[in-house]
Amino acid sequence: MRRHYFLDEYTIIAAERGKRPSDFQHPGTGGRSDPKTCPFCPGNEEMTPPAVAAYTDGGVFADGKERVKGWWARSFLNLYPAVTAEPGPPSGEWVADFARGFHEVIVESPDHQADPSRFSKRDLQRLVCVYRDRYRCRIYEPFVEYVSIFKNWGRVAGASLSHTHSQLIALPIVPPALKREMAAIGESPRCPYCSLAGREASSDRLIFENERFVLIAPYSSTVPYETWILPKGHLSDLEGLDPIDRECLAEVLGEGLGRLDRLLGGPPYNYTIHQLRDPGYHLNLRIQPALSTIAGFEKNTGIFINTVSPEDAASQLRTA
Ligand SMILES: [Zn+2]
Ligand SMILES: [Zn+2]
């Protein structure tokens, strides 16, 4: 049983003998829908709420009476939001709060067939800039305490539409998991993520590194082939990324997604960006392939059983 680097969380690594990447090959991410009826495709902009930001070569615009065309990324409020800017009163006799916030869909490419694991360098750099821009736009809203940015790729990973997109949910609270992390960070003499990035750079869990970032298989990986992207220097959120950081993050994200794609044949996955406006926090991005199901033991104990050791996963991903 392995304990998380600095949290009271555990994973059981139960590597099954002889298990190969081919045992995790996935029969695809669920197929592609028809671009004619895809609300995320160019020409179908009327099928979504107006863009809050359409990213074009000429600048960033919000939709007016006419929908902006010629975009390379586009963000709009979710038609079926989990949270809204003007929610109804809380209901229920237990503790309830207004589900106040913003829920955006970020369409990452006008190309219906685009696959982020094969994004070009320019596409990846643009994606990082869009994430940073959307984050900065929402984190300073008066009631917003946390901005969750995540991607679901493939139907089993939660993507309801196949056209590549991410989501942003801005919340009026800091999620409990982040609060627990901050408490543990506050008790450490040095930022544990800074220590981690330094230590893992020379471990057998390192997969790739560049000047500013590392890509590792975390010691207590909760799912097979989980990877984390960490800045080597202390940065708390996307806003703090300078232009070189952005290039380096784009590169390492491309390496993380590309290697998974080559090793496992296009698996479904989620990636999540963990960040806080609090300068004590350390930005990190986690990629979790959706290859295993959360079942009874995990629900009963909160402890995961992972059948691929992170050292094996890293070794396979290094050569993929
Ligand atoms: Zn489409
Ligand atoms: Zn740090």
TrEMBL record:
It comes from the Archaea. Signal peptide: none annotated. Gene3D superfamilies: HIT-like. Residues 141-217 form the DUF4921 domain. InterPro entries: ADP-glucose_phosphorylase, DUF4921, GalP_UDPtransf1, HIT-like_sf. Pfam families: DUF4921. This is DUF4921 family protein.
